[in-house]
Design goal:
By secondary structure, the protein is of the alpha/beta class. It is built from seven helices and twelve strands. Helix content is about 30%, strand content about 25%.
Length: about 270
């Protein structure tokens, strides 16, 4: 990392956060959105994926030096909130951040601010949804790549690093499907923005599919670095935007062994 940059990595995960804008579900109105997001059956499905995929991918990072913010609403149900607190307790620097109903950018910006540490010249804000996973080396890769990419552009301009090779996991009653993809548009899982610590933009400032229209973007396409789940509760269209890769079962086993803390059997037996 260049000596002029002392970067703090902050992962933000929104857990059924009720936002006034920024999600498709927001268009239904706050009452319907709250009813949907806080439905006990849906919350249980969300916890199942969060505990089976998201948290293990964070717990096994090769570089454990990062902050984690789990963003929830102020009126998030008490028992699920206590469950979240128990789940993140083992992490070195993790916290629940509660916010009233704001738009997606404002709420996530406040979550990032809640994690800031003194001494950092730059922040690397990183996206991870509560039903997805990234590979063991995403934090390390962000710390290695982001400062180098930032120094290629104008002084103090934000820069984005993303990973567009990974796996899709389709969950279905008739059985799960696991396959490789190389996305043609930037994907949000593990995507990070490096910017000066006092800068306004964060990785949530714009749609993750359009970051390349606003900032310099480096896309790493060779290493599998994400697992995206496709299921009935997806807010966005969970459709691969690029090439579907023809991995054999043996290929998938090798990818999972080398990059993720899961086996193929675990993923294919997952229910949500």
């Amino acid at each position: 990392m260049p000596e002029s940059i002392r970067a703090q990595a902050i992962v933000v995960t929104r857990f059924s956060y009720v936002a006034e804008a920024g999600f498709k579900l927001s268009r239904t109105g706050l009452t319907d959105m709250r009813r949907t997001l806080y439905d006990p059956a849906r919350l249980e499905r969300r916890f199942r994926l969060f505990e089976a995929l998201t948290l293990p991918s964070l717990a096994t990072q090769s570089d454990p030096d990062f902050s984690l913010a789990i963003l929830i609403g102020e009126d998030f149900p008490a028992d699920p909130r206590a469950r979240l607190e128990r789940l993140i307790a083992p992490y070195r620097d993790a916290r629940l951040v509660t916010q009233p109903v704001y738009n997606n950018y404002k709420a996530t910006k406040l979550a990032i601010e809640a994690c800031r540490q003194g001494g950092a010249s730059h922040l690397i804000s990183i996206r991870l949804d509560d039903d997805d996973a990234f590979s063991r080396d995403v934090i390390a890769a962000q710390k290695a790549l982001a400062p180098r990419v930032a120094e290629l552009g104008p002084a103090d301009a934000p820069a984005v690093i993303c990973f567009n090779r990974g796996l899709f996991l389709e969950l279905g009653e008739a059985g799960n499907k696991l396959y490789g993809v190389t996305e043609k548009l930037p994907l949000g899982i593990g995507m990070g923005m490096i910017a000066p610590a006092d800068a306004r933009p964060t990785i949530f400032s714009t749609d993750h599919r359009r970051v390349h229209t606003r900032w310099n973007v480096y896309t790493e396409a060779l290493t599998p670095r994400f697992i995206r789940t496709v299921h009935r509760d997806n807010d966005s269209d969970a459709i691969a935007s690029g090439e579907r890769l023809q991995h054999s079962p043996e290929d998938l086993d090798a990818i999972l062994r080398d990059h993720f803390p899961f086996t193929r059997d675990q993923l294919l037996s997952l229910r949500a």
